Amino acid sequence: MTTATTHAILACDAIAERVLTYNPQADLGLLERAYRFAEEAHEGQVRRSGEPYFSHPVAVVEILLDLRLDIPTLCAALLHDTVEDTGTPLAEIQGLFGEEVAQLVDGVTKVASLGHASRTHRTATNLCKTVEAMVRDIRVALIKIADRTHNMRTIEVLSQHKKVRIAAETRDIFVPIAVGLGLGMIYPELQDRCFAVLNPQDYDEIVAIFDYARERVQHRGEVLRDEFLERIGGRFPGTRAIIGCCRPHEVHRIHRHLGDPIERVAHILRFTVITPRDADCYPLLGLLHGLRGPIPGRFKDYIASPRSNQYRALHTRMRGRGGCTVRARILSEEMHAIAERGITHQWTYKRGANEAPADYARRMRWLQELQECQQAMLCSEDFLKLVRGSLTTDKVHPVTPRGEVLELPRGATVLDFAFAIHTDLGWRCAGGRVNGHRVGREYHLRDGDLVDILTDPAIEPGGAWLKHVQTPRARHALRSGLSSRKRERILAIGRTRLTHALRLPPDADLAKRDDVVAAAARLGFADIDAFLIQIGSGKVDPARLLGAIGPQDSDERQPQGELVLALDNAHLYHLANCCRPMAGDDAVGFASSRDGVIVHRTTCHHAVRRSLDEQQTIPIRWQPGTTIGGRVGVLVEMHNRQGALATVCTQIAEANANILKSRTLSIAPRYGSVHFELEVQSLDHLTRVLEALRAEDLVVSAERV
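Above: the chain's sequence. Below: its structure in token form.
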């Protein structure tokens, strides 16, 4: 990969002349003032290569001129390092060049006051600031990408460690942003330069093979082009064809994913057909397939279903002569302009569009995902990981039942799909149907999957769901939802414990009791909720508040508070696995900061031991008519006869109970015992099951355990 060579700095007049070719009404006076100001500000500064530092902002402007950007963006590009590297105050930039230019300059300026923060923290903080600026004005991203492009062109003067770090950051962050903006004239170069730095041996090997294969590929391309142009004749005037090889990073990716030898991949021919009219793309595809047979399953219609960056084209792969593969794409001149310049081709000052750059950018899904990463309030490492995941260019495109195509990172699950549609749908996701087949939440989606989400209003998400999501939207929604529910649960536990300690009714409004609020304040808590959270998490004993309140009149005391166990407050309690209580059992609760109130049967040995601590004990009662629980253990001892186990299982089934698990505990010559885990509807139902088993002659005993 060749690096940028030293060349004369582009003069201000030359920049103005290029601007006038696409923007005749441009304010060239503002551009000239910015040029002179930046030139003076960087006077005497030199780059690592020995070139004047001012050559860098001018080179950034040259890149942006190819994208035909407006005057404020070009001015900001000239001034983008003045605040950071010359000490020029941002207020001075605003006074001289206006608020619009100053905001763009501020958006690309790194955060200065980070002290001795780690590199990961500095990277995350600067990226967070860039995301904020990009959301306000996407032109910040364009300046950053042009800046990084020129830095990658001159990266050879840096140390190997710094080159690798910058190239990895460019590959993970800046390349995906450029892809998202549709900058086809920039991101392939960045991909190749990153590949050359990060995989130098593979890069050199591919380049050496290219030197051998280029002449052969060029010849095959010229033959196909001549045949194609002869076939279309004069029916499609203005149509042209461009031939070329795959780029080095593409060869490496194809070799890694498909396992094809590099020598074979290097002989792939890229064939691009560009025609003046959109309507001619499909007829030209048919003519092209008539010359070279298409490879089944390798056709993609991005005209009917454009990519998220508005890229449109027809892609196909064909069998070329001599065993080579032809990767062809067909697009109109308008589509080609969008493919090269992306978002910048559609803005107001160029084509009379009615949508400004910032408004257009807000509709871009990947930018919304970046904003969600920022709003997730994660640590620096997690933030960078989420951003890289959000910006990955490896995507899948599942389809909703209404025909809407979603774009998700490869590896996304049914749960990601549900959250991409709506947070409430993800929160109640019980799985889905993919192409008509029932799958779980963790199922990984593929391109073209037709996905229908199944919901269950009684479902309760847990922390394990975080293992099954890839997208920032889903991860942020789960984290915030689980955190909110945890706080709600701890508050309810604290309220129950405090009302119990104060012997108040369960529905007592503690916030309206002046004595309770005043006592909490004397103990140093901002409000009663802060105190309840400390009680609910087990960090503070309710007895502290009793001491702060002082003695109460006996007539103010009410029957002590109880926690009513119901289906609609299931997040407040957890049924103990040791004794598996269910509605109707004599039970007792114990405070737990992790699981809320742990409910045990009163006969459980754990309950007997923990009942000695009255402060941790919470009285409970079951809501009448509720059906909580249902998984119980039953130990059946039976005569050791042929078919005895089958008979017992039949009795359980006829009693309408479901066997979840069974385990043989012992077998003797005359007797045997089996432990069953059953699913029953209620305590009465369990009683009927046990009575049916005990009525069987071969059953010695049947007991709940």
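Residues 348-354, 553-560 have pLDDT under 50 and may be disordered.
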